[in-house]
Amino acid sequence: MTEDPSTFEYEEIDFVTGQPYAQWERARLGCPVFETAGASLGVVGRPMFEVTRWDDVEHVLRDADTFSSSINNEHMRPYMGELILGMDGPEHRAYRNLVAHAFRASQLERWDEAVIRPSIEMCVDDVAPLGRAELVRDITRRYPVRVICAIVGVPVEDSDQFHEWSEQINGGPMHPEAGLAASRAMREYLEPLVEARRADPRGDLLSDLVHAEVDGEKLTDDRLYGFLRLLLPAGAETTFRALGNALTALLLAPETMARVRADRALVPALIEETLRWETSVTQVSRVAAADTVVAGCPIPAGAAVAVIVGSADRDESRYARSAEFDLDRSTQTHLAFGTGPHQCLGMHLARLELRVGLNAILDGLPNLRLDPDADPPVIEGLAFRGPRSLPVVFDAVATRS
Ligand code: HEM
Predict the structure, then answer these.
(1) Which of 393, 345, 369, 386 is nearest to 243 (CA)?
(2) What is residue 43's predicted lDDT score, i.e. its pLDDT?
(3) pLDDT above 70 as % of the chain
(4) % of the chain at pLDDT higher than 90
(5) Span from the CA of 357 to the centroid of ligand 1 (angstroms)
(6) What angle do CA 268, 271, 272 make, to 5 degrees?
(7) How far is the CA of 343 from the centre of ligand 1 (A)?
(8) Where are the domains of the chain?
(9) For the CA of 85, the nearest atom of ligand 1
(10) How far apart are CA 240 and CA 357, in angstroms?
């Protein structure tokens, strides 16, 4: 018997340190769509519903006529500008196509040797002689942001600064002052680079965007900076947490670590099971364009809909022992990259970075294990999840020449 969606007893979950999976399990089993105040996600002034089961999540993401993405522009526009994440229909397709080619699997190969491997090897080499490290601080936070900076065409030396701005921009709905300041600072930094590419295109994504046209018109500044303010945080904030989650899975299960170390053909399964078990992006937002019903729950036009892909990927009707990490799981499809028209543009890049990154860490840090003197790692957060820190020890090795 399903509970009444408006009386489901839910707790507000802390955005940074929260543990939402128990609440989502309770919802899947008793009240798969429930109404919340939305405060923990910065939604105000409209009802909000959370959708938790696989079939319903898939349905909502594929029915873009009923469930519009425009809410993402409402939430994020002050911090990011006009975003493809917030467009619908033909407009969305036209703008997404401007950058889609750069993120195809075939196009990414050239970045592997030129940017991805050197970035991870530099991070690993910095700690390899020390015999101990904090993997979030020393490796996972530093690596994907360097890669996305290089692909977009902004100086990699400034990647730490981009990471900081990205975090503040993503947190804008919760902390508007810091989000707006970071958004302004990022634009001021990017303006001279944009002007330089107008005069002298260089074959990077920044040059493509500066010279791109939709229906014979160049992009407005709001849209151009919107792309840049989306791509840099999307590339920086997601894969780094997913890499931390994969490392957490391995460090908490040394026998799994030993199997993967010995047989690297298991790395793709490690990546897909990590994304299913603990994705770094647990939910995406939609707004109901018309009165509708999901899993028997009426959702009025104008209501916000939190589509919980992280919960769908733990749906017990699809995955046995769904809360457990299981490298040998037979069903490895998941919704961590979403589905439908907005499916993650960076998913091939994310998978490539994760594969190259995990192999480089296993190669460069022999006998990698948790630091026995530190607390065990905890994956935390409501919408973005990852370990805050990963203190480890390993056999020290001389830096490669
Ligand atoms: C493990 C890492 C990642 C995860 C879990 C992830 C997850 C997602 C999800 C769930 C969406 C769907 C949003 C929606 O339906 O509203 C999305 C969209 C998007 N992602 Fe990713 N992402 C990851 C890595 C990346 C990377 C590396 C980039 C690089 C640029 C990227 C760029 C984007 C963009 C631009 C969109 C918007 C696409 C659109 O609106 O058409 N993502 N991502």
Answers:
(1) 386
(2) 65
(3) 97
(4) 70
(5) 19
(6) 90
(7) 7
(8) 21-367+380-393
(9) 40
(10) 10
Q: How far apart are CA 124 and CA 247, in angstroms?
A: 14
CA of 393 to the centre of ligand 1 (A): 32
Under the banding of pLDDT at 50, 70 and 90, the label for residue 283 is: very high
SS (H, E, C) the chain: CCCCCCCCCCCCCCCCCCCCHHHHHHHHHHCCEEEECCHHHCCCCCCEEEECCHHHHHHHHHCCCCEECCHHHHHHHHHHCCCHHHCCHHHHHHHHHHHHHHHCHHHHHHHHHHHHHHHHHHHHHHHHHHCEEEHHHHHHCCHHHHHHHHHHCCCHHHHHHHHHHHHHHHCCCCCHHHHHHHHHHHHHHHHHHHHHHHHCCCCCHHHHHHHCEECCEECCHHHHHHHHHHHHHHHHHCHHHHHHHHHHHHHHCHHHHHHHHHCHHHHHHHHHHHHHHCCCECCEEEEECCCEEECCEEECCCCEEEECHHHHCCCCCCCCCCCCCCCCCCCCCCCCCCCCCCCCCCHHHHHHHHHHHHHHHHHHCCCCEECCCCCCCCEECCCECEECCCEEECCCCCCCC
| C-alpha of 268 from chain center | 18
Q: What is the pTM of this model?
A: 0.94
Number of C-beta neighbours around residue 373 at 10 A: 8
d(CA 294, CA 87): 23
Report the alpha-carbon distance of residue 378 to residue 67 in Å, rounded.
34
Q: What is the pLDDT of residues 54-88, one digit of tens each?
A: 999 999 999 999 999 999 988 788 888 888 999 99
Ligand 1 site, residue 147, Cβ cutoff 6 A: no
Alpha-carbon distance of 153 to 231, in angstroms, equals 12
Fold of 21-367+380-393: Cytochrome p450 (1.10.630)
* Residue 83 Cβ contacting ligand 1 at under 6 Å: no
Best CA proximity match to 246, nearest among 279, 213, 215, 214: 279
Query: Which residue, chain included where needed, has tokens 């030129």?
Result: 114
Share the mean pLDDT of the chain.
92
